[in-house]
Structures are given as structure tokens and as C-alpha cells.
Design a protein that fits this description.
With 236 residues, the chain is α+β, with helices and mostly antiparallel strands. It has 4 helices and 11 strands, in the order βββαββααββββββα. The protein has 3 domains: 40 residues, no CATH class; 118 residues, no CATH class; 54 residues. The strands form 3 sheets. It has a 5-stranded antiparallel beta sheet, covered by helices on one side. It has a 3-stranded antiparallel beta sheet with strand order 1-2-3, with no helix packed on it. Helix 2 runs antiparallel to helix 3.
Length: 236
């Protein structure tokens, strides 16, 4: 499904799609249009979109599956993200140097910002190294789903819980940026049985194909019937 507004051409996030009435509203221009590519019947996403034939193993990802378990792994390395972080590190270093050389009488403002700037710099360097060398491994057997990231631990990329608690697995998109430049990141989310709050399995992926690949093969191995979820990413 093409999820761009027919009037202004802007991308329409999933939260503005009304599956019940099969309409969508553009948050940019406010135009309401018909939601094509969906039906009101109970067809699964797989049958509705036929997207499984289009799934290809994403670059940097590997999969191993047998009767007892499935293992999906991927590297974090993204040149664009590393470039952004490197530029930020250089910018903070320049700011530290400037502040160290500013004096107003006997007052040296750089001293009062040095602690916070150094903490921020350390966080940037840590993130840079994580993007450079980290790898996430997703392992599911008939009882547990485990997600681990190494060698540098990062919040949000480590979890373990029984697979019997999973009702659905789906993908969402996050939109960041401004009017000039919009960037998207993708999540793999588990809809939990008996819980109003869904669990984010993988919080940040650069490409939607990566998220959809993980979703499809986890559901396939766990025997979860793939149904439409309100806020999920479209399969176009």
C-alpha cells in the first residue's frame, strides 16, 4: 500500500490510519482519503499483501532455523549513523576547547560546563563504538524468546520472556526530523496476552525490510497467526 497523501505527497504515519472505516487522514494537509490495500474481513496480513514472496535476507543479517529454535542476528554498523555521531563528537570537543579558553574577568564559564560536557562526550563515544562493533542476536525456542546485544550493552536491546505470552508480533515506524528532512526508524513489537502495553523487542532498525523480516520469521517459527494490528507498519 502506498502510504503517501494523494494531495500533498507527505508520508502518513500508521497512527492516522483508520482500519475500521478504511480511511486515512493526512496530518500535514488534513485531507481524508480512502484506505486502499486493506479489507474489513479477517484475512491475515500475509494473504492480504502477499509480501512473504518479496522478503529477502537483509544485508548484515543472518538466520538459522531448525525444529527446536530460530536464531536471527544483525550487525549495527551503519555508515550514515557513524558519520552523524562522529560529527557530534568533533562538535563537542570543539566546544570544550572554546570554553576552556573563555575568561570573563576571573570567571571561567568553561569550568562549570566541563563535567556535563565530558559525560555527554563519553556517551557519544560509547554510542559510536556500539554502532561500530555491536551485534544483536535474537533466539527463540518453544519456551523462551531471548534478545542479547554484545559486546557493549545497550538499554532496550536485551530481554527474555516466555513465548506463550506473545499474542502478535508486528512492526511500527518512528518519524523524526523537521519539515526539510524526515527520517524513519523501525521497531519490532510484541503484543502481549493479557496486557494493555505492548513490548518493544527491537527499538531501532534503519530499514523496514529488516523489521518485517524479523517479524515474519519469528511468527512463522512460533506458529503465530499473523493478524492486522492497529498501529503497525504497512507492507508496501
Amino acid at each position: 500500500m502506498n502510504n503517501k497523501c494523494e494531495h500533498c505527497g507527505m508520508y502518513i504515519p500508521s497512527k492516522y490510519l483508520d482500519f475500521k472505516n478504511l480511511i486515512r487522514k493526512c496530518p500535514s494537509c488534513g485531507k481524508v482519503s480512502k484506505l486502499s490495500g486493506y479489507s474489513k474481513n479477517s484475512e491475515s496480513k500475509e494473504n492480504s499483501y502477499g509480501y512473504k514472496e518479496r522478503l529477502r535476507l537483509p544485508k548484515g543479517m543472518s538466520i538459522h532455523m531448525n525444529n527446536d529454535s530460530i536464531t536471527l542476528s544483525f550487525w549495527w554498523f551503519r555508515f550514515k549513523n557513524l558519520l552523524v555521531l562522529f560529527s557530534s563528537i568533533v562538535g563537542v570537543l570543539q566546544l570544550i576547547i572554546i570554553l576552556n579558553h573563555i575568561k570573563i574577568g576571573t570567571f571561567q564559564p568553561g569550568k562549570y560546563y566541563m563535567i556535563s560536557l565530558n559525560v555527554f562526550l563519553c556517551a557519544l563515544i560509547y554510542s559510536f563504538l556500539a554502532l561500530l562493533i555491536n551485534k544483536t542476536v535474537i533466539v527463540a525456542d518453544r519456551y523462551y524468546l531471548k534478545i542479547q546485544t554484545s559486546p557493549l550493552p545497550m538499554p532496550g536491546f536485551m530481554t527474555s520472556f516466555p513465548v506463550k505470552k506473545i499474542d502478535q508480533i508486528y512492526c511500527t515506524v518512528k518519524e523524526t526530523g523537521n519539515k526539510r528532512e524526515t527520517e524513519f526508524s523501525y521497531q519490532v513489537v510484541a503484543e502481549m496476552k493479557g496486557s494493555k502495553k505492548d513490548k518493544v523487542l527491537i527499538p531501532h532498525l534503519a530499514k523496514k525490510e529488516e523489521a518485517q523480516y524479523i517479524e515474519y520469521y519469528l511468527e512463522k517459527f512460533l506458529g503465530i497467526k499473523d493478524e492486522e494490528v492497529w498501529d503497525e507498519l504497512d507492507k508496501s
